[in-house]
Design a protein that fits this description.
- By secondary structure, the protein is α/β, with parallel strands linked by helices.
- It has two domains: 192 residues, 3-Layer(bba) Sandwich (FAD/NAD(P)-binding domain); 157 residues, D-Amino Acid Oxidase, Chain A, domain 2 (2-Layer Sandwich).
- It contains 15 helices and 18 strands.
- A seven-stranded mixed β-sheet has the order 6-5-14-15-16-13-17. It has a five-stranded parallel β-sheet with strand order 8-2-1-12-18.
- A hairpin with a 2-residue loop joins strand 5 and strand 6.
- Helix 1 packs parallel to helix 13.
- The longest helix has 20 residues.
- It is globular, with a radius of gyration of 21 Å.
- It binds flavin-adenine dinucleotide.
- Flavin-adenine dinucleotide (FAD) binds next to helix 1, strand 3, strand 17 and helix 13.
Length: 380
């Protein structure tokens, strides 16, 4: 069996490792160059993401990812100001209930990406923008790229994120809705705010502070094992400069709206807007934003994809943000989809299941767990 994956993001790369380990021929095509675009600094990886990494990655890659995560995050803290001091006013368990995060650990996203790309040189082709596909009479799928190149496989997987060209061609009725919600996100070296007492106050837990209409979320990533020593122990083939550059930091996020932010432009402009947004917060929180690395500050669009009816299974399918959006845990769901689809395709390649039945079963589970209201209506 041959599988083409469009998109070398979290989902696509997790799937590629899993398929290769299962002996399935896989090719990943990525629009960006090898350095990619900034995709955020930090990721809260919960049980779904961790399980997918362990199931799909070679053991050394999974160990590298795990060794460099932050400490366990079991609860979310609410911060408040009492007599000019920032204190913890309350805690909420991280249990995934009512929109809360599930327990997990913080991950340095560029490091995870570098680990995911390690030893996939012969699988990932960069600078290859997918444009269209055609399902052929013999059951295979042919795909075309912007440079005129083509490739053919038994299965095409759209792992190409929120703007998915695969989804737009395959499921044109699925809509991405933008209601103007934005999230300004950044990161600050821990050493720059160590004197505030904030890192000791929140430990490894995610925390949130609200003053008037301003809300700020933050979390400290202290690498459990220094990335350089983890690389030596687990994955010497990881050649990226990210390993040497990595240092402990505070990630932070300020929810806002398109209306309030206006046009943001460069990361440095977004960082200036972030400082304006944080103006009413406690001085320690303002310092976190003021001392941030300007070049990793980004304003993200928080879109949503409404539930959609089921579609008949075919050799074309989709995973991750290409088909469902979940602000704050979309990466976990993309990796989870990758694990489930990998299991389905690996089973089909060994003749244990019919290929379309396997893809249909993956899609059914993915829709049911990603769009709970669909399951509720169907009485599942
Ligand atoms: C700043 C930030 C913080 C976040 N924090 C969290 C978090 O804490 N926890 C969490 O779970 N999630 C988080 N998310 C969400 C998470 O990043 C996404 O849900 C996740 O990346 C989706 O993975 P994916 O593989 O589906 O798509 P992506 O990671 O978006 O990858 C899609 C890939 O497809 C490529 N592509 C697109 N079009 C084409 C084309 N035509 N041809 C070829 N390639 C193409 C893109 O270049 C990209 O590399 C965060 C997102 C951001 C930006």
């Amino acid at each position: 069996m041959r599988v083409i994956v469009i998109g070398a993001g979290l989902g696509g790369l997790t799937l590629a490792h899993g398929l290769r380990r299962a002996g399935v021929d896989v090719a990943v095509y990525e629009r960006d160059g090898a350095l990619g675009r900034p995709q955020g600094v930090s990721l809260h990886v919960d049980d779904r993401g961790s399980a997918a990494l362990r199931a799909c990655l070679p053991p050394a890659h999974a160990a590298m990812a795990e060794a460099t995560m932050g400490g366990p995050r079991e609860q979310t803290l609410t911060l408040t100001e009492v007599g000019g001091e920032l204190t913890v006013a309350g805690t909420q368990p991280s249990d995934g209930m009512a929109g809360r995060a599930r327990p997990g650990r913080q991950v340095h996203r560029p490091l995870l990406r570098a680990a995911l790309l390690t030893e996939l040189d012969d699988v990932v082709r960069f600078g290859a923008e997918f444009t269209r596909f055609e399902q052929r009479a013999d059951g295979t799928v042919r795909v075309w790229f912007a440079d005129g190149g083509t490739d053919t496989a038994d299965v095409l997987v759209g792992a190409d994120g929120i703007g998915s060209a695969v989804r737009r061609r395959y499921l044109p009725d699925v809509q991405v809705i933008d209601k103007g919600r934005r999230m300004v996100m950044g990161a600050t070296p821990l050493r720059a705010v160590a004197g505030t007492g904030l890192p000791g106050l929140i430990g490894d837990s995610p925390a949130g502070a609200r003053v008037g209409g301003t809300m700020m979320a933050l979390g400290v990533l202290r690498f459990t094992q220094r990335p350089v020593s983890a690389r030596e122990e687990w994955l010497p083939a990881l050649g990226s400069q990210v390993v040497a550059d990595a240092e402990d930091y505070v990630m932070w996020a300020l929810p806002s709206t398109q209306e309030r932010l206006g046009s943001t432009g460069s990361p440095a402009t977004v960082w200036h807007r972030a400082q304006e947004l944080a103006a009413d917060l406690h001085p320690s929180l303002r310092l976190v934003v003021a001392e941030a690395w300007p070049d990793v500050t980004a304003a993200l669009r928080i879109g949503m994809i409404p539930p959609m009816p089921a579609w008949p299974a075919s050799p074309v399918t989709v995973i991750g943000d290409a088909i469902h959006l979940a602000p704050g845990f979309g990466g976990n769901m993309a990796m989870r989809d990758a694990q489930w689809l990998c299991e389905a395709l690996a089973g089909a390649s060994r003749g244990r299941f019919d290929l379309l039945d396997a893809i249909g079963a993956y899609e059914d589970t993915m829709r049911r767990t990603s769009f709970p209201s669909v399951a509720a209506k169907a009485g599942r």
